[in-house]
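Memo to structure team: turn this sequence into structure tokens by end of day. - J.P.
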Amino acid sequence: MALESTQTLLSIRHLSTEFTGSGGSLARAVDDVSFDIHPGETLGLVGESGCGKTTTMLSIMRLLPSSGRITSGQILYDGVDLLSLNEREMRRYRWKEMAMIFQSAMNALNPVVTVGDQIREPILQHDLMDHEAADRRVDELLDLVGISKARKDQYPHQYSGGMRQRAMIAMALACRPRILFADEPTTALDVMIQAQVLELLQHVQRELGLSVMLVTHDLGVVAEVSDSVVVMYGGKVAEYGTSDQVYNSPQHPYTQRLLEAFPDLNAPGEVLASIPGYPPRLNDLPPGCRFEPRCDQRIELCSRLSPELEEVTNLDHGSLTSGSKPFLRHLAACHLCTSLEKRQ
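Reply from structure team:
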């Protein structure tokens, strides 16, 4: 959790992604999403299942399935709009500039190829090394993630769940990317192994100076490792700010309910809150605020007008605590957070 400069490495601007369903129906999975990632920053992308987190990540990597397409927006990596590149040009950015740890390591690893060979493959394809140099690189990566090089010729089923996740991290780091995308990296792991995987991610980030985008529904994970937080709901950004801003002064009712549903170790007897209802179907979105049908603070305007993501007006906004960290405003998409004049 140590940002290196005020420079923006990855800038997402007004990104929208749709999926075509059976019968030609359209589902807007990502709708007008914007945020930035700076060198050395960990950004947590959080929300319930189906809110658009993974689709946002796959859109950035341009790894959407055939039924999905980006309909608008920009994905600016170091000033280059990735949406302007053809597939051959985009392949130069995958692995070498940005890499992804996919959800569920057991399913992501090829069961009939040794772990060492799977890590070696992107090195040979993208780093133009010979086999001997690639083998040394595999040994270095396994050592970095805490796996003995003696086990590189074993198959995924011979690894524990935590070791498979470590192998996935090693594979993602194979070509020395600058940004690491992690999609629910602690899913299906027990609590102790989850902590070890998160500690490993923080370790490799410090060692290699990586930026990390972490997709999760676990607020505890985000609080532990993230510098900034994007809260998504119904394909849109509900709230965006530093971890301190979002956790200690949540402004969107959805963020507030999420935090109330999270157990507090300082109040062990406290009854956890729940959010009634379900997230909206992405092919049948409400005309106003996406959260309005479930919100206990809704006003009449919420049902007919979708709120814009705006700076929260009743907080004192300043730079992050370190002078080297980038200025990050606290934004929320809620009519209750805007001035009375804007509501009318």
